[in-house]
Records
---
Amino acid sequence: MIIALAGNQNCGKTTLFNALTGSNQHVGNFPGVTVEQKSGEIRGVKNYSVVDLPGIYSIRPYSSEEIVSRDFILDGKPDGIINIVDATNIERNLYLTLQLLELHIPMVLALNMMDEVRSNGGTIDVKMMSEKLGIPVVPISAVKGEGVSELVNRIVSVTKDKVYPTIMDFCPVGAVHRCIHAVAHLIEDHAQRAGVSARFCATKLIEGDDSFAHRLELDQNELELLDHSVLEMEHDTGFDRNEALADMRYTFINGVVDASVVKCHESKGQHRSVMIDKVLTGKYTAFPVFIGVMFLTFWLTFNVIGSTLADWLSLGIDWLTKLVDSGLTAYGINPVVHSLIIDGIFSGVGSVLSFLPLIVTLFFFLSILEDTGYMARVAFIMDRLLRKIGLSGRSFVPMIIGFGCSVPAIMSTRTLASDSDRKMTILLTPYMSCSAKIPIYAVFSAAFFPKYQAFVMIGLYLFGIALAIIVALVMKTTAFRGSPVPFVMELPNYRLPSPKTVFLLLWQKAKDFLQRAFTIIFIATIIIWFLQTFDTKLNVVTDSADSLLAIIGHYISAVLKPIGFADWRVATALISGFIAKEAVVSTLSVLLNTSTAALGSALSGMFTPLSAISFLVFTLLYTPCVAAVATIKKELNSGIGTVGVVIMQCVIAWLAAFAVYQIGGLLT
């Protein structure tokens, strides 16, 4: 049995899903799209699994999440639906409920947050509401686990006995009633063949959802009869088609609420949230507070907690590398195999693996901000600015994460409702300079601009942001033209984060990072090691200048000459930077036979101050690391698209560096 868990955003759906499944969860993607799918076995019940659908307000396909939810319910044919609603905001939540009832699928309504309703002086007559809606209604508190076992028993009962909703007609006799029944009668045979409720199809067609006309294969005569019915309804009611159906649903909802709900007064949580929002979303205070929160998050991640954990992990990896190195030396293993294991696998994979604590720490803080309700405010205050470049406020969060690491930033674009916004944000995120590039900036700015290091660093970050805005404006008028998707954002009450939810998120992200990026990094590391170790006759080289990598570097250096650096060692360092950006510095140290501390003086023989600036601009903008590219491929679900992204990044990086070098040459 497959159970769909559906509900509005911020109604406690994830908490209920965790309570239903515990650790029996699986995370993947819905077929054909990159919207995340969470499913799991219901604890204590054999052969029952639940799928956590994206939070939606209506089964009207504006966003990719709403399309996923609708298509899963229609095409996935779940055996039952658990519709979770926020009992403290019941009128709006029941709007989705009425649409789900029209699907004519066994269903149970879960009234969540009943503990808050009671504590604030409200009550709900569950039996009366059940009679009015024609489905079982179960009061629960997902956070406290109250009523969850009864909810499981009810959904098992209605699915096994195939108990369907008894009420599907929500409108009194009148123009809307006549229109719905006329259209339902018109398409009844088509809906039966498609395996979808005729009532549901009728309301979708009346709302103007053309996908249902295609799904039902209506002919021209039937479409004309449909339009005639809709025009007659609009004439009689004075509303357009969508207003008429919304009025019908809310009239029914008001009747249900009046008969079964005693509304609670404003809760302490609501009052507290309103007072906090005067500061966090205030006209003059929102941005300073946001900057402070983000600064604290990144400082704790990359300077205190995350960096400390990463250092400890690096020490552990170094210790293990030395132990294995000593063991292989004592064993007398073949030198080539020894080099493959130590210089290839341990060196390459180990350097990337050290990012894991940073990613986990960053997601820890971001999940707390999300659970408390603050991230919804961030999207709200940034929406107006980002809309000018064709994005919504939600895109700002991945971009902020991109200053730490592109991998979790690209992964976090899954939260974006619009497929266009998601793809555009993925393309723009690499322009946000990740923390892995900081060693490059530090070495070059100290070597060539010792008095202006801070200005150089800030200038690079601002240059990346400015170029991202230019690219966004170009894409807005070319590849991503069209009307923006309506931006709907709920500002939930501030709440304490759930430790269990935070822990499960951290575990999923860590596992996801290791599973997806680790294999790609492993393969790429072996390829780089092979190119560094052998010449064209597959003999082991004693000097890296004779290696295959050096030959490739010579060819690439010809392309790099117009932007100021033609040395093959620079090209080789940029190639190794594809594995991890920190490898640019370490590769230059190896090729110049010097320590990282003395690298600055060695670089003065290869670069001038102008070519150093050009190099910094190129490293700021050229292709992200292999882990980020692998994540882009996974999120775009397109190998060709990913290659296009890499080529675009390199071309833009070359053009920007060329402009800097040539204009700088003219000025100096």
---
Amino acid sequence: MVGLLPLLPIISAVTVVFLKEEKRVRRVSNAFALATFLLSLYLLLTALAGGEGVYAFTAFLSFRLDALSALMSAIVSFISLVVHFYAGRYMQDEPGYARFYALLDLTVSAILLTVTAEHLLLLFTGWSLTGTFLYFLLTHNYGRRPAVRYGLWTLVIQRLGDAFLLVALLLLAEGFGSYELTGLFERIEQEGEQKRLLLELAGTFVVLSAFAKSAQVPFHLWLPYTMEGPTPVSALMHAGIVNAGGFIVNRFAPVYAFAEVGLHLAFLVGLVTAVLGALLMLVQPDVKKALGYSTVGQMGYMMMEAGLGAFALAVYHLFAHGVFKATLFMSSGTVIHEARKDPNIPEDEIYKFFVERELPPLKLPWYFFALITVLVPFGLVVFAHLAAGVDAFKYQGAVVLLFFGWITGAQTVFSIYRYGAKSPVKTLLFVLASFTVVILGYVFIGHSFERFLYPDQELIKRIYLNAEIDPLIFELQILLLTAVAVAGWFYVYYAYESKEVIIEKLRERYALLYRLLARELYFKEFYEKVGELLTTLGRRTDELFRGLVR
């Protein structure tokens, strides 16, 4: 059954290639996608019932059914099923209809092969093929030069990630004498303490591979520029392609019980990516490109969670973000269509605040909202952790996650005061109710994911401890970040009192920063220059060898 999971999409791809009628292509591919999803649900239930194991046809063709592979298979096949149904009408009358569905099926097959593989080289095969099929999907309309150009960018970054992962796999296989995950993890548990340096190197290369696949700085630029491809592809990328970095780090979780460098690197790069992705999203005039940079920022959060040792939470983030962002991409076409028909912006309170600068009078004193802003979100976050039986202050990683939860809630409450809602108390109650549901769901589901994915809690404890830094430095960082956040709120509050608008300030006083963000920090120009240099170097090398041969 596990071996059948990546095989079904291959059968579908081979079948639809020989079909000429669009309706039959759609029906056959959708039927196989539905069968794949139902099979993945059966395997997920099997894993929940304790039916984990390794199933091998040959030494190379061996498949792994465990909590992570079952859960990832269900996520991938579910998003794939939705994208299949969506693409039926979206790609209607497009040239290469059957070819598109065949590539869609092959991409899903490669992802499922990656998440279920037991043999290291089989895992690498699926990992590499995923990037290859993504390139063909992005360049499906090969008449569009930008699609082909940026599709090539994607392929280059994916190949770089493949190289990092291959080095990591070879280090692990040769260092511990096993090409099967089960044997490898057993030997890491036995010999990990004596081979820490090897595990540090391997863990770092796995993280570097995750950076390339999950669009982390400086490998992030390929993702926003894939928007030239068909919209269903943008949605499908959230089914285990762009968020595959979270999976691959979780797959090699036992490595990080003895490796620290990769975790610290994941946290730092993830933090930079999260901030940069959020900033660049705000200045994009194109809705799909804005969603692309939003994904970059979310993938930064996912890598941060992995860097903090919260591996199961990273998988939950992968799942939740994959579902809602795939939906957003599929909805973006409707938004664009509606905007073309009616370009007027809906006039709500936020619109009036930023454009017309009309503010309803505030009925509550500012210190009332200040106390709510600081105390209520913090209390909700702590309560949610205590209710779920999670010690929020035991590990540094948990404290950082609590801190981000508090900042998010406080910023939401502060925004209600900032925009001056007509019924601030009523609006505030709705916001706090929503925030409570989100936090409780996030903590309870994240904790459930951890117990499901890692029943061996000792492994998770060791990873959390490896992710920690010097306590004094950690406490100073938290205090500094808190001071920056509070100073930001005061700055915005006094900007409000003097009727100044933040966007106007950004353009006038920080024109250089605004230009840098609008030009995406010149990453694109840098990549183009590097590409030109490599092309010139390649031509000259070719001429040199031709001269030597002559």
---
Amino acid sequence: MIKKAKSVCPLDCPDTCGIISSISEGKLVKVQGDPDHFGTRGFLCKKVRHYPERVYGPDRLLYPLKRSGEKGSGSFERITWNEATEIITKKFHEIISNNGPESILPFSGSGTLGLVNGSVAGKRFFNRLGASRLDRTICSKGGRIGYKYTLGASLGADPLAIPRSKLIISWGTNPYSTNIHQIPLIQEAKRDGATYVVINPYKIKSVGMADLFLQPKPGSDAALALGVMNIIINNSLYDQDFVKKYTEGFEALTKRVQEYPLEKVVEVTGIKKEMIQEFAKLYAQIIPSFIYAGSGMQHHSNGGMMIRTISCLPGLVGAWKYPGGGMFYPTSESFPINWEKIERGDLSPNTPRSVNMNQLGEVLLHASPKIHGLYVYNSNPAAVLFNQRKVIDGLSRDDLFTVVHEQLFTDTVRYADIVLPATTQFEQTDLHYSYFHLSLQLNKPVIKPCGESRSNIDTFKALAQGMGFEETCFQETEFDIIKRALEIDSPYLKGISLNRLREGGVVRLTLPDDFHIPYPDLVFPTPSGKIEFYSERMKSEELDPLPSHDPIMEGPLRSPELYKKYPIYLLTPSAQAFLNSNFANITPSKSTERRPTLEIHSEDAKKRKIEQGDLLKVFNDRGECYLWAAVGENVREGVAVNTGIWWNSLSPGRCNSNQTTPDRIADLGGGSTYNTNLVQIEKVNDHTILTEFSSPKKNR
């Protein structure tokens, strides 16, 4: 007998898919897309089709473990939950007594985006502890700050209105790999006559259905946007009435764009002038237009200003007047949560310092006061973080007490003192909201927890009890927290109750129209109430108040000597089969990612006598990794791409491409800059490095 139940994909993807879980004799045997879910439409991406292998695979952690060998060796012995809880709380008390609560750092990522297990449970515990706070900047914070300088809030156009658009622009995003359910919306728009433009330094799959493909040099997108504004303004192609009524600083913008004549933009971006002109005219003349800006482009040293600059474009052509018009940058602020209140920031006994997650290695090695305790959950920093030698050196400290709560035996687990087994989404309750479609979904467990695995909320309850925390919030259930979230007074939540969510399926936020129009009265939540081409707030913060292009930190203009030594830009976008480092452990025969590869241009390969399938060493002053060559024309000359993220333990030489990426901070919001990364490439003739790769150690 096969029983079917509804679940929700919890991973860091805008789609937040509805899943039909098939259960046989208490086991998850298959997952399918929910055909009744308006976003999922009955199909799932290649990644999550392997959920059963993740739940029951050989890497699944089933019991608490205590380290029995050197850090990094992967040697552990089984202990009980009571023993683990006692060790952790005793050590935390000791650290706090000797060094203060700020010497404990929680590190969490996006392993689950659930309201309860992704955010509230851990935040409450560490707020009460008084631990250092993690500034979660790795993904979109820099771009959000830039976007808000222009528009006032992270409220983007509703992507479900894409079929109403006549011009759709995928700018720095790869929907087939990172937002697959956007593809049917684009296809629907194209069937109705829409024009589709792709802007990306990497020739992604959706280029195959594009009407125009622009391939800029990495980090040059702001210059492209300014060049387009130059053409639109100087040829009076902008919406004069809209600009006059609803924007601020047009005259100053007009002067600024004169600094970006077509010839200069061609030089900076590497795009032919005819293509820039064509794009500018399409954008000015086709109404309504929809820009979908990906977070990948803002992972440059100039990434915040890049999004700030691009977000000015819809204001020039009046795109915000129309359903299906404007710009999409994550819509998560449409979910009206008072995070400080629900995460109980008031519990903190102090005003803790903030630690930028991008610089974990630097923090573990050099922070003052020193970090003595690290608690990792919903993340795999030993694989996904940058300047990875620093990260591994920090995790290897003998005087660092590290706890890892995890589903699988990841790279990070190898450096833990105590390992706690975590439940998967199919074994826990949570509430999910999307940063793509504006909706809520309740996930309920469909199988019993494997082994002795526990959810984040149950784990933090046990730790709170062990620490002696008496606040009633630490007795709240998942449903208590969810009900508290739904009680917020907001028109978006009107009519949405826990009982309604329990009925199953996806529930749209309560919207006045079929599609969400984020600025219906064309009043923007900026200081001026208008779209701010010129930002007084930026000026007061000693930033350039106008959109601009600054060359990226690693390149011929900012670091010419470094560029001579390392002349290849390495980009590390998402793979179709992985989500960050999730699913990287699925056996290659079941994955579209057979082995870690480097896509390089045929001319770059020719210069280095590299042929298809050769083993390559990719390196810079930060580190090195080994990848197999994929020679072709998908990248520009001088650019290389490694899709991932592969686990170190499953990579040649036990190192992935994050050995080379920088932990430098971006221009706005403390964002990551891992795509501003210069490397050199050389062919490897001695293949002894592969011996270790073919038989990775998996000590238990």
